[in-house]
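Reviewer 2 asked us to include a model.

Predict the structure of this chain.
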Amino acid sequence: MATVKAYLGVARAPFLLLPVTLVAAGAAAAAYGGAFSWPRTLLALVGLVAAHVGVNVLNEVSDMRTGIDLHTARTPFSGGSGTLPGRAMSARTATAFGVAACAVALVIGIWFVTRVGWSLLPVLALGAVAIPFYTDVFARAGVGELFAGLGLGALPVWGAALVQGGTPGPGAVAAAVPAFFMTFNLLLLNEFPDEQADRTGGRRNLVVLFGRNGAAAVYAAAALATPAAIGVAVAVRALPPVALLAVVPSLLLVAPLRWALRRPRQPVPVPALAANVAWNLATNAMLAVSFMISR
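Predicted model (C-alpha cells):
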C-alpha cells in the first residue's frame, strides 16, 4: 500500500502553491472589477489544484516509463520526486491517482461551464488536451514551455476571473500576461539540470532544441518581460498604480539571471532555482494584494 508521503510525492505537493497564487490573482482581478464569489473561488481552486496534481502525477509515470527519472540528478525543484524509482508507489497506482485527479478537475470545469456559459469552454478544452498530452506530446514537440505558460499561468488567471460571474476586465488580462511568462520560466529553468536525461528520453524542450546558451537567453528575456509587462499595464491603466509593488519580487531574479547571462553551461545553483520559484509565487501574490488594496 502506498503511503500518504508517496501520494504527496508524485503530486509534487510543494509545487501546488502555484495554483493558489494563480486563482488568487484572477479572483482578485474580478473583485477589483466588482464581481466576486467565495464559493466559486474555492471551487476553482480545487479544480486547478486537481488539474495540477493530474499533470504532475502523469508526468512522473511517463518519466518512469521512458527511463528519464532513472537518470536525473534530483534537486528540490527538478528531476522528479523519486517516488516511483524508489518503489514507494507502483506506476499503476500512480496512473489511477493521476486519472482520478484529472476527473475531479473535469467535473468541476463542466459544472462551471453550465453556470458561466460557453465563454469558459476554450479554457476547459485546452486543459482537457494539455493534461493527458503534455508529457508525451507537447514536451516532445518543443512546445512544452508554451503550454505550461498557458495551462498553468495565463489561462488559470483568466479562468478564475471569468468564473466569478461577471465579465473580466483588462486587469484580468494584465495579470495573466506575467503569469504566462513566469510559469514558462518556472519550467524552463528546471529543465536545465535534467538536460542529459531529457535528451536520452526523447524529450525536445527548449534546452535540448536551443542548447544551454540559447535557452538561457530565452529565460532571461521572459524574466525581464515580466516586470516590463506589469509596468506597461500600469501605464495604460489596465492595472492600478499600486500594482507596481508586484515588480519588487523581480529582485529575486538577480541569482538566476546572473547564472543565465554569465555561466549557463554550468549547473544551475540550487539557490537560483529556489529564487525562480519564489519570484513566481510572490509576484502573483502581490498582484492579488494590489487588486484588493485598490478595491
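The chain has one domain: 4-294. The two ends are 49 Å apart (CA to CA). We have added this to the supplementary material.
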